[in-house]
Amino acid sequence: MERFLEIAGFGEADAQFDIDPAAPESERHDAVERNWRKFVADSMEDEISGIIEAERLKAEPTRDLMHEAFEVGGVPQEGTAVTRVMPPGSRFGAKAEARDRQRHRVADLLSGFYRKYRSLTAHYPIELPED
Fold it and tell me: How far apart are the first and last CA of the chain?
């Protein structure tokens, strides 16, 4: 939110998008709303891409899981949903412990992502109107 206010020109820097101050209030409101939605969508994409890269997750299945999480109200903590987005690994021996730690870490990261953005949007990904 603070970063959006900065790029909207409410800080010391100039605004990074233009809103005609002479436009009717409804048009100014629509412009701010469009820019806010784009800002949130870009932020979500940057963050989920960072999680995917850091944990070496399967990109499309991870995005599909997050889409489902926004539809049903959270990231499943039980079952195989989280392990399906992880890279293949051993479920036996010493490597099984490392995989289980990663599964918990991934579940926590994806749940944190959900909690952070759920208050800002009801859907992932955010669909932006075409200009």
Answer: 23
Separation CA 62–CA 114 (nearest Å): 12
Q: Return d(Cα 37, Cα 54) in angstroms, integer.
A: 26
* Rounded-to-integer distance, Cα 4 and Cα 11, Å: 10
Per-residue pLDDT tens digits of the chain, which is 131 residues long: 566 555 555 555 555 566 666 778 787 678 778 888 888 899 999 999 999 999 999 999 999 999 999 999 999 999 999 999 999 988 888 888 999 999 999 999 999 999 999 988 999 999 887 75
> How far apart are the C-alpha atoms of 104 and 77, rounded to whole Å?
8
Is the model's pTM score more than 0.85? no
- Which among 57, 75, 77, 58 is positioned nearest to 113, based on CA atoms? 75
> Cα separation of 19 and 71, whole Å?
33
- DSSP summary character for residue 19: -
> In this structure, are residues 83 and 107 in contact, taking their beta carbons and an 8 Å threshold?
no
